[in-house]
Design goal:
The longest helix has 24 residues, at 41-64. It is built from 2 helices and no strands. The protein has a domain at 13-30 and 39-64. The termini are far apart. It has helices at residues 13-26, 41-64. The chain has 66 residues and is mainly alpha-helical.
Length: 66
């Protein structure tokens, strides 16, 4: 099975990883460095959902400020 999840901007990976840990901390999910496959789907959804929400908010703000 191959993955179609290739990174459009590979240089952004470090920033996204840091962002993930910041959001996890904000929503009360403790992530450890490395593999976190033991967290629940609910917690993973909290992290991902809040990341998307913040990215959309940031994009909207940048559109307003143009």
């Amino acid at each position: 099975m191959t993955s179609n999840n290739r990174k459009l901007v590979p240089e952004a990976m470090d920033s996204l990883e840091k962002f993930k840990y910041e959001v996890a901390s904000e929503v009360g999910v403790n992530l450890k460095n490395g593999y976190n496959g033991n967290i629940s789907a609910r917690d993973a959804g909290k992290i991902g959902g809040n990341m998307v929400k913040k990215m959309i908010q940031q994009a909207e703000n940048s559109m307003i400020n143009k």
